[in-house]
Design a protein that fits this description.
The protein has about 750 residues and is α/β, with parallel strands linked by helices. It contains 27 helices and 20 strands.
């Protein structure tokens, strides 16, 4: 190489104004054809590529764009289609693709889980009885498109074989080498065809290397990449790692490829290079710009880091890039016209991060003076924010260390008091919190935000929706009701709009799963609570019914993990600030006779560090923050929490340590796997394992729900078990929601009556 190369690892798919989401949902609702969908998304894809080219990125990634999920794309490319979808009568390959992700009337969708420790979800590959074939060389297709349409010599991106297989299910661990051997020829074919097409660089993502890999795993890496190197000599392959530093550093950097991509933001890649060096013949792709947070980088310190790296690795062998794909940040700050200028100047979304990467590459190549303006701007912006009133504590703010994080009585004694008060039936039914937000709900909220209707008119509309759904829940026969959260945009964004120290953008969307996009708030200052956030709506809903209505809050860990947090103080200090603010809110709910309060923590598992050595610190902090927020309530007040898809075996002790009276867990796509966790561990509190999947539009059968209930009851005592859907119902249609909830309650009643009859017979 004759210059310092700039590169990107991946670009947001959704468009500046979520055009991608809108086209997908129009297609799913039958408003546009497949041809129209592909035409519109191609235009969006090319627009993203052109922007990267115009920003000055030398190695523009191609093949990172997806219509749903890049892991699912890889599955489809290699013919990994679950048996239940192979003869489904789908009219096209795209219809099958979406069926796997979203389910059909007759087939349950594939499991969905978190992408490492991010809030992005991927579709879990199912390798049961799979005979892989190469259905399409997807990276080649997108490479040719970029070259022919835009003249871009792109860098194809491919999910690596070890990571792809490790993320899947449906095989025994000892069968992994055999499975890898069946896929390697297909990977080799893809790479050979890329080489034949003239591709110069290929990025193979192996983020599994940032986790606790074993020596056996490293042996598999050696065998796989030696096979690839022998079969495709001369192709410049970069093995890309991210989200953490790598174990087995020396073995990894000596794999037979042209380059290694390391994350210099998370973990300590620099120390590994200092200790062990870096191969002189290889390229180091240095991830020095944070690909997961939105604060502007201090280019002075980042350039200093690169100059240190340059002393250890020749600058002719350095590629400058973000630490990870920019999939995890919003597209551009340019659309945020209403932001406070001080905060806006301190922010960097995907487009701005590309500018930072290019500036650093130029600075490393030509010297600091060449980018003096960029250096000065970044340092000034961060300094102004850090030293402004934004970062100062508010008067009277409570110190977390002064508060107890323990309930007055242990669970075994509390639950007796609660049972006496609530008088719920065996196998009580409830929902997770949110109810369908129709187009009309969103329309009314937009009119209110624009000032087209008054505050009171909007409140009256929300009250009307709440009343309607309280009546629907009563008619269905649900035991513990929810108010529906019609006033809330998102379970974190809503609180970001209410808490001091938070800011919500207008267009700062990121993809969570499928077409579901979230707008993470920005934490820029000290967090505190000024006035109640949820009490008015909860009290109104409770006034409409004699049944109990749950107060609904998002927990401190999830608010932190689903926000862009401050990077100038410990994240655990920020976590405790949030917990103290929520504690005040919970106390206000209790004062207003809301006696069942759900504090959701769907992101607790996803925040778990990739390295086990860091787990205890994180879990201890997470458990403490949850308890800090909930501990001050009376023994008769019942605390619920909810969690999303996770490997719960990893955090079972922490779940119990939360000391929540009832926990509900999203499980329907992986029901058996989760139940096995409870078979292997004793859980002494109450629990609801989701009995049907809400991420799919399909309405389950009553027998399917009963089967899920009875399967759980083989492990969990009936007097500890609650019946609920998998997750909140915000994204579902009203008709399908009512139909599914009716079947859920009917199934619960039948199982309940059968249990009671069996006891009486005895």
């Amino acid at each position: 190489m004759t210059k310092v190369i700039s590169s990107n690892l991946g670009y947001p798919r959704i468009g500046e104004l979520r055009e991608w989401k809108k086209e997908l949902e129009k297609f799913w609702s039958g408003k546009i054809s497949e041809e129209e969908l592909l035409k519109e998304t191609k235009a969006l894809r090319l627009h993203g590529l052109k922007k990267q080219q115009d920003k000055g990125i030398d190695l523009v990634p191609v093949g990172d764009f997806s219509l749903y999920d890049h892991v699912l794309d890889t599955s489809i490319m290699f013919g990994v289609v679950p048996t239940r979808f192979q003869n489904s009568g789908a009219k096209s390959a795209l219809e099958t693709y979406f069926a796997i992700a979203r389910g059909t009337k007759d087939a349950v969708a594939s499991e969905m889980t978190k992408w490492f420790n991010t809030n992005y979800h991927y579709i879990v590959p199912e390798f049961n009885n799979v005979r892989p074939i190469l259905t399409e060389n997807r990276p080649l297709t997108f490479y040719k498109e970029a070259k022919e349409e835009l003249g871009i010599e792109g860098k194809p991106v491919l999910l690596g074989p070890i990571t792809f297989l490790k993320l899947g299910k449906g095989y025994e661990a000892d069968k992994f080498p055999e499975l890898l051997k069946t896929f390697l020829p297909l990977y080799i074919q893809v790479l050979q065809e890329l080489k034949e097409a003239g591709v110069k660089w290929v990025q193979i993502d192996e983020p599994i290397l940032g986790t606790n890999v074993t020596g056996a795993d490293i042996d598999q890496f050696k065998q796989a990449y030696e096979a690839i190197s022998e079969a495709v000599p001369g192709l410049n392959i970069i093995i890309q790692t991210y989200f953490e530093s790598v174990d087995f550093y020396e073995e990894i950097v000596n794999l037979p490829v042209a380059g290694i991509g390391l994350d210099f933001v998370h973990g300590d890649a620099l120390e590994a290079i200092r200790q062990h060096g870096f191969p002189k013949e290889k390229v180091l792709a240095a991830g020095v710009i944070d690909g997961r947070n939105v604060w502007r980088s201090n280019l002075e310190t980042r350039l200093g880091l690169l100059e240190t790296i340059q002393q250890l690795v020749n600058k002719d062998r350095i590629i400058v890039q973000p630490s990870s794909s920019l999939l995890h940040v919003p597209v551009t700050i340019e659309t945020e016209q209403a932001l406070d200028p001080i905060i806006k100047d301190a922010l960097s979304f995907a487009d701005q991060k590309l500018e930072e990467v290019v500036a650093l590459a130029q600075g490393l190549e030509n010297g600091k003076a060449n980018i003096a303006k960029e250096l000065e701007g970044s340092v000034r912006a961060i300094d102004v924010l850090n030293n402004s009133a934004y970062r100062k504590k508010t008067a009277g703010q409570v110190n977390a260390s002064e508060l107890s994080a323990d309930r007055a009585l242990p669970f075994a004694e509390r639950i007796k008091i609660q049972d006496e008060l609530f008088q719920l039936p065996l196998l009580p039914t409830t929902t997770i919190g949110s109810l369908p937000q129709t187009t009309e709900v969103r329309k009314q909220r937009l009119k209110w935000r624009k000032g087209d209707i008054t505050d009171r008119e909007y409140e009256q509309y929300i009250e009307t929706e709440t009343k309607k759904w309280i009546e629907i829940q009563e008619d269905i026969g649900i035991d513990v009701l929810v108010h529906g959260e019609f006033e809330r945009t998102d379970m974190v964004e809503y609180f970001g709009e209410k808490l001091n120290g938070f800011l919500v953008t207008k267009f700062g969307w990121v993809q969570s799963y499928g077409s579901r996009c979230v707008k993470p708030p920005l934490i820029f200052g000290e967090v505190s609570l000024n006035e109640p956030m949820t009490v008015k709506e909860s009290v109104y809903a409770q006034s409409l019914t004699d049944k109990r209505v749950k107060g609904m809050l998002t927990g401190p860990v999830t608010i932190l993990n689903w926000s862009f947090e401050r990077d100038d103080i410990s994240k655990y200090d920020v976590l405790n600030q949030i917990a103290v603010a929520l504690r005040s809110e919970i106390e206000e709910l209790e004062k207003n006779n809301i006696k069942i309060i759900q504090v959701d923590e769907p992101a607790l598992r996803e925040g778990l560090p990739l390295k086990r050595s860091k787990w205890d610190e994180y879990l201890n902090a997470a458990v403490h923050a949850f308890k800090l927020s909930t501990a001050s309530v009376e023994n008769s007040t019942q605390i619920h929490t909810h969690m999303c898809y996770s490997s719960f075996g990893d955090i079972f002790d922490a779940i119990s340590g939360l000391d929540a009276d009832v926990i509900s867990i999203e499980t329907s796509r992986s029901h058996g796997e989760l139940i096995s966790t409870f078979e292997e561990n004793t859980y002494d509190k109450e629990i609801g394992l989701g009995v049907y999947d809400i991420h799919s539009p399909r309405v389950p059968s009553k027998e399917e729900i009963k089967e899920n209930i009875n399967r759980a009851l083989k492990t969990i005592p009936a007097n500890q078990f609650w019946i609920n859907p998998d997750c909140g119902l915000k994204t579902r249609q009203e008709t399908e929601t009512i139909a599914a909830l009716k079947l859920m309650v009917e199934a619960a009643v039948e199982v309940r009556n059968n249990r009671l009859a069996t006891v009486q017979d005895k």
